[in-house]
Write a structure and sequence with these properties.
The N and C termini lie far apart (74 Å). Helix 24 runs antiparallel to helix 25. The strands form 11 sheets. Strands 4-5-6-3-7 form a 5-stranded parallel β-sheet, sandwiched between helices. Strands 13, 14, 16 and 19 form a 4-stranded mixed β-sheet that branches. With 943 residues, the chain is of the alpha/beta class. 37% of the residues lie in helices and 16% in strands. It folds into 5 domains: 126 residues, Orthogonal Bundle (Transferase(Phosphotransferase), domain 1); 169 residues, P-loop containing nucleotide triphosphate hydrolases (Rossmann fold, 3-Layer(aba) Sandwich); 70 residues, no CATH class; 109 residues, Immunoglobulin-like; 221 residues, paralog of FGE (formylglycine-generating enzyme), CATH 3.90.1580. The protein contains 31 helices and 32 strands.
């Protein structure tokens, strides 16, 4: 029922339709409405359609122009007017002409089929009413982000802006996320903030986290404060989360405005910030925006590939809520953003037909908008003022929009001498991080060599590098003008590819050297000479000059360790001369002292093999003749890494070696000593005190047949992994999903069922007692039957899950292997997979899980079966997979498959990647193991 009474003007100045009473009716032929705004087909009793609302919109527009309804009369008079043979539509007011008058005439056509679609009406109004304001300077921004004063030229993101403002109307925070280069910062600065200004005055506190986010925040709150005052505020905010809210409320009251904290590039909190400040900064922000009624708002932007890291700061993740995902602009919006600013200045392109192929070439590219803006800026500088045209034909001949960036950079390169070119190369490489993304560096970090300083200034003048004041106001920072330079400039791409090892080495030494300087340059933090020399060689190989602090750290490390070695050699010669005469007489005593000092023990090893039922855990002794050996146990080895070097002694029979952690590797578990992959058990070797009574270390391991029992083969081949799935998951889940892509996955066999409590108890008995503990179920937050022997084992860490699998001669699946087993490959059983992108469990309806007291009710699918016959991959419990959740932190792995606590369809899906710390226990997380090679035939073990 579209009429003036149902259109409300919000505080943000945007109209909203608030009455959907008629829209909710399912009977399309139902009549009803307000007579003055009813369409002819409504009076005739015909079915209503979208065109009916277009008629009402036309009447509303006329009323907005004239201040009175377009129609008049009683309901009977209006019925007679539109039911009779002489029906005539209302006409536009006399003073409304041109495109608007033509649009009104089409909206008020008597024939519904002659009226335009709602999308066409919106586009026509947009073309007439939304015109960029004419301001001085170029209407394009090049590779730089739009700022608030360029809001009139920021076009194409109206939908995202509306969504963000609506989120801030209902809540206190919004997180804008999307691919690098898609225009997140421009959306915040030139879209969201100007719209918020329409609702009332704002006091904007804008920052990037950088290396010390608490200090940066304090500096922005107190721009005129002294260093001591700023540092004191930073400490207060970090020590007490609620302190920031108090400070911002006082700020808002003084300014009589809403305080908006803008955190641009929030990913820096995890990539650059001091770890000691990460948590306090995140908690302070979360506490500051806990109450939507307060005049405090938080607007943050973040690259989507870093979004999962917010799991490390759960308070901030909860405060930000569902992210606003910003995808690449489509061709319609790209064209508008390119053409409209030109038309607003009274210019045109010299060949308008060339706009479409140029826009189409960038459709879907995350960097399309900045490339378009950069191209527009170049064209504007070459405009023909006499003919008021922009030379797009020349641009097309030069390689199109994507070629503009490359050509500009290469033209700049051609102006350089060889020595200057080398310096430019060094600076550009230094501005690219080890992971291939841009780095923000203080100008001083580039180095104080004259050649580098000149190269940096030349890059800034060419607008390939951006220099700006640090938000702290204490330094100037520089960075490449846009991520598109890293991927779209072949020369730089070649430099990057050829300097991978050098850039990684440079990043490492810069980080360590920075800490060394902060701590007062102590010798205890210096690297061993060998390490320092390797880094120096890697840098020299690609001709990278480290900054002054890093160079000093490397030089000091080499010199200090050379001096130390010389002192040791002199001392060793002196001692040797003094004690040589007494060595022969005390050889036996020294040998025993050496054993004691090394804590070298003596022990025996006994291995038994068994067959079993993996569900019930019932075991039966088997005849096999396995062999075994011991390996060193480096920290963190549990999930399937290549075995470390063996320990240097004979591993058969009695043996001696220093006490400590080791890996017992058992092979030949098949019939007649056949091998099917090693069983690996972490062990603790006894020390010197065991030599007088060597202990027996007894272990039981499964045979090859036992390892293969109840596994399901998954043949090698391609599978469609990632994506939003089919049916597609809700848009708010897309930021947490991997991109859709075909992936070749090698063959394997995977457990048909999740590991049971009974099977895990068998594992605990088979390995050294006390090495692993039983799952601490307790009496809360678990279903009443969670401890049943045939229920899936839960509350085990990723380490324990991996050890359980390795004991069986298996390993944890990777995320790709797990997902293929759940979805199926493109071909299953010699036939095409009908649902290669399935997202949700197969099987029957959800059932309620009987929860313990005070736990929330949960549901789970009952009988999900994958195309390969693997059971319950999206049902009972989450399952550990050996794939890190974050590229730079190996201690956070993924849980997959959704547990009985899954609270929505997204969490129950096959695609949700649930980041969890490897040492944490979850009452709904278990394990399923995998055999890397599919040669083992599936089936029950023999009894």
């Amino acid at each position: 029922d579209l009429k003036p009474a149902n259109v409300m003007l919000g505080r943000d100045g945007r109209p909203r339709l608030v009455d959907f009473g008629l829209a909710a009716r399912l009977n399309r032929a139902a009549q009803g409405g307000t007579p003055l705004y009813m369409a002819p087909e409504q009076w005739r009793g015909e079915p209503q359609r979208a065109a009916t609302d277009v008629w009402a919109l036309g009447l509303l527009l006329i009323e907005m122009f004239t201040g009175k309804p377009a129609l008049s009369g009683t309901a009977t008079e209006l019925r007679d007017r539109f039911e009779g043979p002489l029906a005539a539509p209302p006409t536009p007011p006399p003073d409304v002409t041109g495109p608007i008058a033509a649009l009104l005439t089409r909206c008020l056509a008597l024939d519904p089929e002659a009226r335009p679609r709602a999308e066409a009406v919106a586009q026509a109004l947009d073309e007439v009413l939304v015109s960029p304001a004419v301001t001085a300077g170029s209407p394009f921004r090049g590779l730089a982000a739009f700022e608030a004063d360029q809001a009139a030229h920021f076009l194409g993101r109206e939908g995202e802006t509306d969504a963000a403002v609506e989120l801030l109307r209902r809540g206190s925070a919004v997180l804008v996320t999307g691919p690098s280069g898609v225009g997140k910062s421009s959306l915040v600065l030139a879209g969201i903030l100007p719209r918020l200004t329409e609702r009332g005055p704002l006091e904007i506190i804008r920052l990037r986290p950088g290396d010390r986010p608490l200090n940066r925040l304090a500096n922005r709150i107190l721009p005129d404060g002294g260093p001591a005052e700023r540092d004191g505020l930073a400490r207060e905010i970090g020590a007490e989360a609620g302190r920031l809210e108090v400070v911002l409320l006082a700020h808002a009251q003084r300014a009589r405005a809403t305080v908006v904290v803008v955190v641009d590039q929030l990913e820096e909190l995890f990539t650059l910030s001091d770890p000691a400040q990460q948590g306090p900064f995140a908690r302070a922000l979360a506490a500051a925006v806990h109450d939507p009624g307060q005049p405090i708002r938080l607007v943050a932007s973040m690259r989507d590939d870093h979004y999962g890291r917010l799991a490390r700061v759960p308070q901030l993740l909860a405060a930000l809520g569902a992210p606003l995902f910003v995808g690449p602009m489509d061709r319609v919006r790209l064209r508008r953003a390119f053409v409209r600013p030109v038309e607003a200045r009274g210019y045109r392109f010299d060949d308008p037909e060339l706009v479409t192929p140029l826009v189409d070439a960038l459709d879907g590219s995350p960097a399309a908008l900045p490339l378009m803006q950069f191209c527009g800026e170049q064209l504007w500088e070459q405009r023909n003022e006499a003919q008021r045209t922009l030379p797009i034909a020349e641009l097309t001949r030069g390689g199109g929009l994507a070629g503009v960036l490359q050509h500009t950079a290469e033209n700049f390169m051609r102006t350089l001498s060889q020595s200057r070119l080398d310096a430019v190369r060094d600076v550009c490489i230094q501005l690219v991080a080890a992971d291939g993304t841009r780095r923000v560096l203080a100008r001083a970090q580039i180095g104080d060599a004259p050649a580098r300083a000149e190269a940096l200034e030349a890059l800034i003048a060419a607008r390939l590098v951006v220099a700006r004041a640090d938000p702290d106001g204490t330094d100037q920072v520089v960075e490449l003008a846009h991520e598109a330079l890293v991927t779209g400039w072949p020369r730089l791409s070649g430099w990057i590819e050829g300097s991978k090892a050098g850039r990684a080495a440079l990043s490492e030494v810069e980080s360590v050297a920075g800490y060394w300087v902060d701590q007062g340059r102590p010798d205890r933090l210096l690297w061993p000479q060998g390490k320092a020399q390797v880094i120096q060689d890697q840098l020299a190989e690609v001709q990278l000059q480290p900054p002054a602090d890093a160079a000093a750290f490397l030089a000091r490390s080499v010199i200090w360790h050379r001096r130390r070695q010389r002192r040791r050699r002199r001392l060793g010669l002196l001692v040797a001369g003094l004690v040589l005469a007494g060595i022969l007489g005390v050889h036996r005593q020294m040998q025993r002292q050496s054993l004691a000092l090394g804590d070298v023990g003596l022990f025996r090893v006994e291995i038994e093999t068994f067959n079993w039922d993996p569900l019930t855990g019932e075991v039966q002794r088997a005849q096999a003749r396995p062999t075994w050996r011991l390996h060193q146990a480096p920290d963190g080895w549990w999930h399937g890494d290549a075995l470390p070097p063996p320990l240097p002694f004979d591993v058969h029979g009695d043996m001696m070696e220093a006490s400590g952690p080791a890996l017992l590797v058992v092979e030949g578990r098949g019939e007649g000593g056949a091998d099917c992959g090693p069983s690996v058990i972490p062990v603790q070797l006894p020390g010197f005190e065991s030599r007088d009574a060597p202990p027996l270390l007894r272990f039981t391991v499964p045979t090859c047949a036992a390892s293969a029992a109840l596994t399901q083969p998954v043949p090698a081949g391609e599978a469609m992994l990632g994506g939003a799935g089919e049916p597609p998951l809700p848009p708010d889940a897309h930021a947490k999903l991997a991109p859709l892509r075909p992936v070749f996955v090698a063959g394997f066999a995977i457990d048909r069922h999740e590991a049971t409590n009974a099977a895990y108890q068998a594992f605990l008995k088979a390995v050294a007692p006390g090495r692993f503990e039983a799952p601490p179920y307790g009496n809360h937050q678990i279903p009443k039957d969670a401890t049943h022997p045939l229920s899936p084992v839960t509350r085990i860490t990723a380490y324990e899950a991996a050890a359980f699998c390795r004991w069986q001669g298996k390993r944890l699946p990777t995320a790709d292997e797990w997902e293929k087993a759940a979805r199926g490959g493109l071909v299953v059983g010699a036939q095409r997979n009908p649902r290669p992108e399935r997202s949700m469990p197969n099987g029957g309806p959800l059932i309620e899980v009987d929860p313990p007291r005070n736990a929330r009710l949960a549901t789970a699918p009952t009988d999900d079966v994958s195309p390969y016959g693997v059971v319950g991959m999206a049902s009972n419990v989450w399952e550990w997979v050996a794939t890190p959740s974050f590229d730079d932190d190996p201690h956070w792995w993924q849980l997959r498959g959704g547990g009985w606590t899954a609270k929505n369809a997204t969490e129950r899906s096959l695609l949700h990647r649930n980041p969890r710390h490897i040492n944490d226990r979850y009452f709904d997380a278990g394990v399923r193991c995998l055999v890397p090679e599919p040669a083992l035939a599936p089936g029950r073990a023999t009894r």
